[in-house]
């Protein structure tokens, strides 16, 4: 049966993450119900590229679903968006190659984290950024961040209780867009071949701690080498985190 690639945008504020859970409202649950409503089918498989935590947002989450040849992608997209809640939108549906799996075919992801460093935060940014009122040293944060680029064991930045044993990842890029004022967030963009649970939030929390003088920038190397979550900094809150892109190599040309 034909397989489709869905690109999904959502504001995660009111959701308990992507993954379907019992007794919790999730983004995957909303998509699953919408597909059932629009296609009148129950025997389909819906897979996301990976989980996002409660309160985390996405500009381009990717999912794969297998339907039938009678389903027209553009008609499905219109139907899904007609029944989905306003916080979730399917921005694209494309034919996918046979066997395409949104999770297992992914070669990398891009996340952005947004920090408003100002005495107060605009109400229009409060749901989508971490408000850090105290001054932070951006030069120190940039210097520390440079020490994370490359292939490393990121166990020190993995959330407790995740159970993932292979903790080596390649952080290909850590980029910065400076922001000033209550409605101009600092944006930290991270590109990697994969991310551990809470990895981005723990990295950002540690960088902010360095920016506030808790450690010198070169302490980041010792934190990495320790493989000890207790050695790293705080976990940044979820509302500042956005999944920006999922990379599939040749499949990106779908």
Describe the structure.
Helices cover 21% and strands 27% of the residues. By secondary structure, it is of the alpha+beta class. The chain folds into two domains: 3-105, Alpha-Beta Plaits (2-Layer Sandwich), CATH 3.30.70; 108-245, Alpha-Beta Plaits (2-Layer Sandwich), CATH 3.30.70.660. Strands 1, 2, 3, 4, 5, 6, 7, 8, 9 and 10 form a ten-stranded mixed sheet that branches. Helix 1 (27-39) packs across helix 2 (73-83) and helix 3 (138-146) crosses helix 4.
Summarize the structure.
The chain is α+β, with helices and mostly antiparallel strands and about 250 residues long. The protein has helices at about 25-40, 75-85, 140-145, 200-210, 220-225; strands spanning about 5-10, 45-50, 55-65, 90-95, 110-115, 130, 150-155, 170-175, 185-190, 240-245.
Count of DSSP strands: 10
How many structural units, i.e. domains? 2
CATH superfamily label of the largest domain = Pseudouridine synthase I, catalytic domain, C-terminal subdomain
Question: What's the CATH class of the largest domain, please?
Answer: Alpha Beta
User: Within the CATH hierarchy, at the fold level, what is the topology of the largest domain?
Assistant: Alpha-Beta Plaits
Tally of helical runs: 5
Strand percentage lies at 25-35%
Radius of gyration: 19 Å
What percentage of residues falls in helices of 4 or more residues?
10-25%
Alpha-beta classification: alpha+beta
SSE pattern, N- to C-terminal = EHEEHEEEHEEEHHE
Shape estimate? globular
Largest sheet: 10 strands, mixed
Supply the CATH architecture of the largest domain.
2-Layer Sandwich
User: Distance between termini?
Assistant: 18 Å
- Indicate the low-confidence ranges by residue numbers: none
């Amino acid at each position: 049966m034909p397989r489709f690639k869905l690109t999904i945008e959502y504001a995660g504020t009111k959701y308990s993450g992507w993954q379907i859970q019992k007794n919790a409202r999730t983004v995957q649950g909303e998509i699953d119900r919408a597909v059932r409503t629009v296609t009148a089918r129950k025997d389909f498989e819906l897979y996301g590229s990976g989980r996002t935590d409660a309160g985390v947002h996405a500009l381009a989450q990717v999912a794969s679903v297998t339907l039938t040849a009678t389903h027209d992608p553009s008609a499905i997209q219109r139907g899904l968006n007609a029944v989905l809640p306003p916080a979730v939108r399917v921005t694209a549906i494309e034919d996918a190659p046979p066997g395409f799996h949104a999770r297992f075919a992914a070669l990398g992801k891009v996340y952005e984290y947004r920090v408003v460093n100002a005495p107060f935060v605009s109400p229009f940014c409060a749901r989508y950024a971490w408000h850090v009122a105290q001054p932070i040293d951006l030069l120190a944060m940039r210097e520390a961040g440079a020490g994370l680029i490359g292939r490393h064991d990121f166990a020190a930045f993995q959330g407790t209780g995740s159970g993932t044993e292979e903790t080596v990842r390649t952080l290909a890029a850590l980029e910065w867009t400076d922001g000033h004022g209550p409605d101009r967030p600092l944006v930290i963009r991270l590109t990697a071949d994969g991310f551990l649970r809470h990895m981005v939030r723990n990295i950002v929390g540690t960088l902010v701690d360095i920016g506030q003088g808790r450690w010198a920038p070169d302490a980041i190397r010792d934190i990495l080498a320790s493989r000890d979550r207790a050695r790293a900094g705080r976990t940044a809150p979820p509302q500042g985190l956005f999944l920006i892109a999922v990379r599939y190599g040749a499949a990106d040309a779908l």
